Amino acid sequence: MIRRSKIQIASLAACLTLSSHFALAAEGLPTPKELIAKYVQATGGEKTMRATRSMRSKGKMEMPAMGMSGELELFAAAPNKMLMSMELPNLGTIKTGYDGKVAWIENPMTGPMIIEGDQLKEMLNQSDFYRDLKYDELYPTQETMEKTEFAGQSAYKVRLVDPSGKELFEYFAVDSGLKIGFEGEQTNEMGVMFVTTELSDYRSVDGRSMPMTTVARMMGMEMKMVLEDVSFNSVDDAIFALPENIKTLAGAEKP
Q1: How crowded is the C-beta side of 66, counted as CA atoms within 13 Å?
Q2: What is the DSSP letter of 175?
């Protein structure tokens, strides 16, 4: 049970970050391009985003139903590097990273692993530092489906389809234009699962508006992540270096 719980924690954490062929909107609704442009502007604008080369954030995570909580630290850098570390009392430290070439995870219960296949594809998407500026490249098909309610707010629901045909649904607040959540199938150590994620408590940090609270729900479980400290352009690239055991694994898997 503990081993399964730790895998679920890592999986949930991984959820919690061009011109299109089709960019449609139902009659009377804004187009995806309009909604995305408003969102980019609401979070600081393209110029501010591109002036940012790295980000570091610290906070806490908790799974109320399991009585678990711990410390969380995230690092990201352009163009596509990331590292996430979760310190869980009585369970240990779970780390997930991508150095631009190798994606990996270290879990005290399952050991070190190289991430491959569909899970790797999703990690490459999530680790793209300028992902919010590359919707047309990442999602050739885009459609504004409806005006609806999400997380208690009036929102526009946008359907996004990547080149492989995989769907993602994102929700943009009608009033603020901010992205307040997304949902879709994600691949993790336990297989393919439908995950719903809510984003809230946006705050301004050095000219950029950031969601400080993220809640991910999957298989009846919920994990909440609350960021307490965020800084930009202060990450040493050495932080993304592969751990020695991951280097060994990566070397062994080369042809």
Answers
A1: 21
A2: T
| Contact in structure between 81 and 240 (CB atoms under 8 Å) | yes
Q: DSSP code of 242? A: P
Beta-carbon count within 10 A of 151 CB: 15
**28 by DSSP, 3-state: which?**
coil
Alpha helices in 133-240 (DSSP H): 135-138
pTM comes to 0.86
User: In whole angstroms, how large is the CA radius of gyration of the chain?
Assistant: 18
Task: Tally helices (H) and strands (E) across the chain.
Answer: 6, 14
Q: Cis link prior to 79 (omega < 30° from 0)?
A: yes
Tell me which residue has tokens 């946008």.
158
User: What tens digit of pLDDT does each residue of 150-196 get?
Assistant: 999 999 999 999 999 999 999 999 999 999 999 998 876 667 889 99
Q: By the 8 A CB rule, do 129 and 80 touch?
A: yes
pLDDT digits (tens, 9 = 90+) for 68-105: 899 999 999 999 999 999 998 888 999 999 999 999 99
Which of helix, strand or coil describes residue 91? Answer: coil
68 touches 243 (CB < 8 A): no
3-state secondary structure of 137: helix
Rounded CA-CA distance 232/34 in Å is 27
pLDDT value at 9 more than 60: no
Rounded Cα–Cα distance for residues 46 and 132 (Å) = 9
Residue 26 sits at the vertex; the CA angle it makes with 24 and 28, to the nearest 5 degrees, is 120
pLDDT score for 192:
81
